Structures are given as structure tokens and as C-alpha cells.
Amino acid sequence: MEKRSDDTYVFSRVPSNAKVSFIDVTLVRMGMTAILSQFMLGAALGNSMTFWEAMLASCLGSFLLEFVSFGIGFAGMKEGLSTSLLSRWCGFGRSGSAIIGLIIAVSSIGWFGVQNSILANGILNAFNHKLSFELVTGISGIVFTFLVASGFKALTLTAKIAVPLFFLVILYIFSSLIFNDNIAIQHNLSTKRLSISEAATVVAGGFMMASLTTPDISRYCKTKGHLFWMITLCIIVGEFIINGIAILIAQALNTDDIVDIVTINAGIIGLISVILSVVKVNDVNLYTSSLGLSNAFEILTGKKFDYFKITIFVGLAGTALSMMGILNHFVDFLSMLGVIFPPIAGVMLVDYYILKTSRKILDETREKGLLPDDSQTQLIGWSAIFACVVGTLVGVFFSFGIPSLNSILMAGLAYWVLMKVKS
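^ that's the sequence the OP posted. Answer follows.
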């Protein structure tokens, strides 16, 4: 949707004539959230809970994700702004938005590391594990990073078949297990058990970055209806269909290792589907990181860095994480995201829809297709930052209910109270 080789719409609103069709934005969003990452999540739940416990956790997490995605996404659609830019006028200010951009970028780097580790495991399987994991992750991460940064067109072309191919492979494995009567809902699970609230936070964490960065995609939506159905369809496909299938497969095969699941049951085609899916997902991870870091670097240095340099930085950082074994901490990684990102969303939602601290200037500049200038934008929103800290601490240290929901509510409430006291 964007020309990655320049700064088109990175530091400006998306004009109305650049909006795209419902199908286009939905396919992009589906590629970001469905299939590979959701299957990993479902497999992790299936190896830690019973089927119905996992589905209940998916429902609870999905309600929160729908709320956040639509609330933040509508603001992005209306203003034509990415998340990192939008946060400037949703409580955080210029410097505060740099922090948001960095947080988003760090998360995307983590996801890049997770996906690169999966790619490396697939390659190791093909070579019967005769190679070093660190060597393979290092080479694959560096090669992929430079290919994407240089705008290698074949990557985009091959990535377009990744989602349908992976989906067909999973359906094949699922149907094979059914016909062989191997599907069984197990209750004696070998890994550490997750409670419903913990699992709901893992579900929210798996999709929360995508929810918070919904404006990166929704700014191209034409109508509110397009936005709603884009979000809803992606959650239905990802959180219920893919999750449900993954949970059952993981329990039937007694493993949450995605590479083992697809390569043992679908052979070379399964391995190819994993590799292409990683290409697709990591292409998006690099894109999301570039938006967040572009905003952060521009604020911190006053310079606009090009896409190539930012992509190289992100890719190398993600490669380092994969070499350090981030995949071994996948559930912990999702749990962390499940309490760090919701407070940011809580503050932005309260500011944009309730306090409306910058709505007047946003309305005035939107009509002209411009952004508020620096004199009309606060430098840093300390109230927003403090509220996010409060929300995160509540999500981490208080185990009652659903931590993700607790963190978003407490952050929103804390921000509202602080702003009312200031006024």
C-alpha cells in the first residue's frame, strides 16, 4: 500500500485519493495477523490447556482486541495517520510519540526474531540438524534483511502465496488427523498449565501490537464499515478458526513445535509453506518497525532516515534476538506484550474520544490535509507516560481478572484523573 523506498505518508496524512478497497486492506491485515503467528499461539495454548479452556481464553482476549482495534483504527482512518504519528496528538506529545515508536519497533524486532527462529528450525530440519542453530539464524536473518531492504521484488511476489499455501497445509493436516481418528481432546498436558486469565493475556499479547498499530493499515480504509469488517473478519479467522485448528492439532500430536507439525505431516510442501509464511510476516514486521523508528529518529535527531538504513538496523537486531533463543520464551514474550501495549491504547482512546485534547487542531488541519505544526503540539505528555507506567504495573503485579484488561482500564482511568487534576 505504501512505497517503501521513500517517506510517502510516513510524516503526513494519507489523502483521500490514496485510500484503497476493502479487499486490499483486509488482505494486508490478514497477512499481518492470521495463519503463522496465530497458529503458533493456538499450538501454545493447545499444549497448555484443554480445548474448551483455550477457546474461552480466545473469546475473552478477542473481545478486548476488537475494542482496541476498532477504537484506535477509527481514529487512524479519520485522521489518516499511523499509530506513532497519531500518538503525538493523543496525549503523548512529540517526544512521547518517539517513545511509542520505539516500543512498537522493539516489539516488531522481537517478532522478527521469533519468525526468523522458525525459519532457521525449518532449514535445520531439512539438513537433519547437522548445522548450528546460531549459524543458520544469523545467515537467514542477514540475507532476508538485505533482500527486503533492497526492495527485492521476488520477495513480495512469493509472499503473496504464503497465506493461502500455509492455510491449505494446515487444513490438510487437520483433515488427515480427523480421517485417521487421531484428534483427541487431551487433559493430561505435558507443559506448564496456563490459567484462563493468563491465557487470555497471551491471546491479547499475540494480537495486541497489531491492534495498537491498526492505524498503520486503517488510514487507507474508505469507510467505517470497511474498518469494522476488516478487523472482525481477521479476528474471526485468526482467533477462532486458526486458533481452534491449531489447538486440536497440537493436542493430537502432543507438540507445539510448528516446524515439526508441518514438516512431519506435510513434508517438503509444509516446510516451504513455513518459509514463505515467515517471509510474509517478517516483511510486515520490518515495515511496522520502519514506521515507528522513522517517527522516533526524526524527533530525536531532527533527521529523516531512509527505509534502507532503518530496515538494516531492525533486521540485524531481530537476527541477534533469534540467535539468543527468543523462540524459547515465546509465551513469556506474548505475556509481556499483553500488559505493555494495552496501557498505550487506553491512554490514546481516553484522550481522543473523551478528553479530546487535540481534536480541534486535528479537525482544522485535517480539512487542509496538513499536520499540526510543532508550536501546536506539546513536547511530551508526562501524564500519558505516567498513566502507562501505572497500567503496566497493575497488569504485571495484580493477577485478578485478565491482566490485559486491567492494564488498559487502569491506564485510561489514571490518565483521565491526572488530566482532570491538571485542568
